[in-house]
Amino acid sequence: MEKAASVPGKTGSSVRLGLRENWPQFALLVVINAFVGGMVGIERTVVPLIGSEEFHVTSTTLIVSFIVSFIVSFGVVKALANLVSGQLADAWGRKRVLVLGWLVGLPVPFMIIWAPTWEWVIAANALLGINQGLAWSMTVIMKVDLVGPKSRGLAVGLNEFAGYLAVGVTALLTGYLAAQYGLRPVPIYLGIGYAGVGAALSILLVRDTRDHVRLEASSHAQQAAPISFRQVFSLTSFGDRNLFAASQAGLVNNLNDGMSWGIFPLFFASFGLGVERIGILKAIYPATWGVLQIVTGPLSDRWGRKGLIVAGMWVQAAGLFLTAATRQFEWWIVGSLLLGLGTAMVYPSLIAAVSDASHPTWRARSLSVYRFWRDLGYAIGALSAGLIADSFGLSWAITSIAALTFLSGVVVAVVMRETV
Domain 17-214+227-415: which topology? Predict the structure, then answer.
């Protein structure tokens, strides 16, 4: 437990670090991030099939067009939103950026419901990328601000648990609703509720956490000199070995996620699987990923980050290899479970590792650069998988990404140094 301390410049006020000391705000941010994750979940099962069945943008020869227009737009926009989120958070405050993220996300479900052409869906996906880049970034950063240095893995684990469990549950619900009522509009109604409630909670109840950052920085062993965003970008991208190892692993992690988002529904459907069973498979992966982070996040505080990251990348690779090599629903379930387990081991550990290697005064910017590289993986993975699928088939696309995921784990094993 952290001691109470006065925040510089705030006469008479007292701010403390720690999960127990800040649990009401922490719990509120967990709930809000569940709504953020749910916004992505409405697209995981249904929207690729809307493109295929309603707008006819996917076929054996048009996989690349679908991948580029849909997932790449999301990945690039989200990566850029991540990149500016830390700078905006330091300049404007965390809460304002969180609220801005929700305001941008409000039109998304309506645009998908009413979309007369595929271009409307692309535009909605771009807005969703901004929503995710700003809102999800802030929920992560604010939780890390609140708990201080001792419980970062736990904080990130709970944040990502809420977000990705919501992704999985929503993917399952939208698959069920689509099987009962069609692809539009009923499954997308969930998104209207998520956006409205998430925005209201953020505006009315969330408090900013910059005072917690000032408190942690005032007691930090090394007082950092002012550092520019360009310097933070350089350090996080390749200047610091731990930050570089985390950034490349994050990129590859979301590279295989981007591949699975676009390729998996088409791969499963090519063997005659219906939308409801595809929804089950698409839900198992993020739900497993989400739930297990309650365990893997705190474990990274105890056992260290590196071992979980390396093993997690290799478990992901095994799940992808198994999915590509088999043709039965039961084996695909096992592959999805392995993919979810491996991602749960990696995701909170990477964010905690970046936080460990960053000074409190530039941690938000460093996390935003890491999340830029990580979510750029959506675009790179989707595009590369689409190109491989067009040339060699869907199975080869999955297998190639599996091999790259394994190699990324090797890079972390060689380059990263344990800090916990």
Answer: Growth Hormone; Chain: A; (1.20.1250)
